[in-house]
Hints:
The chain is an alpha+beta fold. 39% of the residues lie in helices and 18% in strands. It has two domains: 1-42, no CATH class; 44-82, no CATH class. It has helices at 11-22, 36-41, 59-65, 67-73; strands at residues 2-3, 31-32, 45-49, 52-57. The strands form two sheets. The protein has a two-stranded parallel sheet with strand order 1-2. Strand 3 and strand 4 form a beta hairpin. Helix 3 (59-65) packs across helix 4. It is globular and about 30 Å long. The two termini are 20 Å apart.
Amino acid sequence: MCDDLSSxxxxxxxxxxxxxxxxxxxATYLVVSHRRPLLQRADQILVLKSGRLEDVGRLxxxxxxxxxxxxxxxxxxxxxxx
Length: 82
């Protein structure tokens, strides 16, 4: 499990980290992150709101049907939601 593993990395180092991790086809990663490059690569995204599962799916589907995912994607999260 990786909990916001790349948050302190510069863009290029972060890209290399995830590229190397995701090149392994024999591994499964549970990644906690709000970073767009990871969300775009994810096979499944679990959207949590107030400690509860709000929705599950791929990014494109979630952006269509899940208001919470659209808010996350557009950077409109209030302090009370974090």
